[in-house]
Amino acid sequence: MTMTGNDVLKNLSEYNIWANQTMLDVFSKLPQVPNNSLRLLSHALNAQAIWIARITGTQSPVKVWQEHNLEELKELHKSASYRIAELVTNADEAEFNRLIDYTNSQGNKYSTRVLDILTHAFNHATYHRAQVATDLRKNGHTPPNTDYVTYVRELMGQVF
User: Fold this and answer.
1) Number of alpha helices (DSSP H) and beta strands (DSSP E) in the chain
2) Residue 71, burial from CB neighbour count under 10 angstroms (0-12, 13-18, 19+)
3) Residue pLDDT, tens place only, 102-160
4) What is the largest CA-CA distance in the chain?
5) CA gyration radius for the chain?
6) Could you tell me the pTM of the whole model?
7) 3-state class of 57 per DSSP?
8) Contact yes or no for 124/45 (Cβ under 8 A)
9) Which of 21, 31, 57, 160 lies at a C-alpha separation of 20 to 30 Å from 149?
């Protein structure tokens, strides 16, 4: 089976939803979520919302390092993770190659293709979920396995 760049991004967007939800499910079972874990997952989801705003030319509802409680994180996941997946699904070649002009949180101006922004957003979330896993372990909790291959195995019914 041959996959296009759009197929790969669609898979990554669906994986991103699964991985964020998997982490939130673990958070929901803890008596208390470690503060740094909340902070890191807040940042990952904030970044998605900020990139969505840049792509759509709208105002971001959050700041880069704004912290959220568990309920707020669940709502942000519903809006950001699903919305970024929708952007991928609705994008065509022209949209993927469209340049977005934006100013980052340090005030630097950049111009980046939508394709690269979306790829970055998924990679960035994976990076920070790994930090959350490390923090959970440091605090005596068992983090979930949110590896992409684990997602694929579950999707294919090969849970092991």
Assistant:
1) 6, 2
2) exposed
3) 998 899 999 999 999 999 999 999 999 999 999 999 999 999 999 999 998 988 775 54
4) 47
5) 16
6) 0.92
7) coil
8) no
9) 31
Amino acid, single-letter form, for residue 52: I
User: How far is 64 from 44, CA to CA, in rounded Å?
Assistant: 9
Question: What is the spatial distance between Cα 144 and Cα 71, in angstroms, rounded to a whole number?
Answer: 19
Task: Tell which residue, 9, 7, 3, 2, has the closest CA to residue 116.
Answer: 9
Report the half-sphere exposure of 101 (CA within 13 A, side-chain side): 0
Phi, psi of 130 (to 5 degrees): -65, -40
Report CA-CA distances (Å) from 42 to 29, 50, 98, 129, 149.
18, 12, 28, 10, 24
Cβ atoms within 10 Å, residue 84: 25
